[in-house]
Write a structure and sequence with these properties.
One of its GO terms (biological process) is L-phenylalanine biosynthetic process. One of its GO terms (molecular function) is prephenate dehydratase activity. It is an enzyme of class 4 (lyase). By secondary structure, the chain is an alpha/beta fold. The protein has helices spanning 15-23, 37-45, 65-72, 109-122, 136-144, 150-153, 164-167, 220-229, 263-275, 301-315, and strands at residues 5-9, 30-34, 51-58, 62-63, 78-86, 89-93, 104-107, 127-130, 157-160, 174-179, 186-193, 205-212, 235-242, 250-257, 278-286. Bound molecules: prephenic acid (PRE). Prephenic acid is lined by residues 9, 14-16, 55, 58, 64, 87, 108, 110-111, 133-134, 161, 187.
Amino acid sequence: MPRPRYAYLGPAGTFTEVALRQVVSPDDAEYLPQTDVVSAIEAVRAGVADHAVVAIESTIEGGVTATLDALAVGDPLVLQREVLVPVGFTLVGRPGVALADVRRVAAHPHAWVQCRRWLGAHVPGAVHVVATSNTAPAALLADAGAGADGDALGFDAALVPPAAPAHYGLADRVLAEGVADNPEAVTRFVVVGRPGPVPPPTGADKTTLVVHLPSNEAGALLTMLEQFAARGVNLSRIESRPIGDSLGRYSFSMDAEGHITEERMGEAFMGLHRVCPHVRYLGSYPRADRRAADVHIGTADADFLAARDWLRSVRGGASV
Ligand SMILES: O=C(O)C(=O)C[C@]1(C(=O)O)C=C[C@@H](O)C=C1
């Protein structure tokens, strides 16, 4: 039996790999490291991988736009699971560098944003050298070995996940630990796969979708949001992203609390289908925090079914 193949942002030791390990052990799956999230998602579309694990949202930065944009267009994919990973950083230096010598810091853009205040206080004026992932600079430092010089490397120090120094043999190069502006920072990752049968509801689910609004129509955003509000469906994330064909045209990426097989979510989707020119369902999957959605009075499945029966009897001529 072939092992399932998982594409993810590598090299080894990224937070994405920490998330992937929560999903499946490397003994039971093939891990396929990629240089960016778009490549990981495209590997699934191309059939090179069965799943991708990608960051989608962080407590500091909000939505991961590369992921949102890659899921919004192209062959449809669905989210199958979410995983939360606490995020903090360690600063490692090239050989012989002290904290006071650091002028250029290699960091993934999301890592840089999550540590900006700490860096301003401890290495003021340091320049950001963009890294493709949180462990890419650790791998460069490990490859360069003891002779690594700053000109060849292009940076003096790097922000890496706490486990990376041990993994890459850089434990003696740690300049600072616990580097983060918000010690509560968490990144949310999702497992992406090709569409298939919808998994059954668990009672604590999320549904992700993308919609476009009718162009130049006053109140179109409100009309779209009303589809959820009227059915008692709470949104836990909503973001606008440019569609890209002309200025002022945006799509909305959203997470709604509940499952597509639940009546109130189904009714909201039917409403969206009536009032929005484009609706892309991106999957219903269990919430990582296992918190069940609040169900308002009149919006439980039984309420919708009873209302439908009532309407049927009215249409059938019953006096009510
Ligand atoms: O997985 C990693 O280590 C990454 O470099 C990616 C990523 C992200 O894309 O948000 C993951 C977690 C942190 O929020 C910072 C960066």
